[in-house]
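Reading is simple: the token line describes the chain's fold. The lines below illustrate.

. . .
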Amino acid sequence: MSSAASSTAAAPRQGGFHRFWRALKQLFLEVAGALFAFLGILWLSAALRSWTRDLSYWLIAAAVAFALVFFFFALSSFRRARKL
């Protein structure tokens, strides 16, 4: 038996449920990423409103920091969905 035939024979076949579960996980990660991106946009909007109303700088910095964290979560969720 050749090495190419043995490597294909060793790989298990993925059933329909496994493919469905993988697609469901990918969809969940993409939806979560979109929600995180939306929340990041909302935090940036709050930072812009704080900036135009001359509020404390720490409030603006906190809003920008939260926005960056949410954008990081969105990016990592999309990257993880891509790897599946």
Q: What stands out?
A: The helical segments are 3-10, 16-52, 57-83.
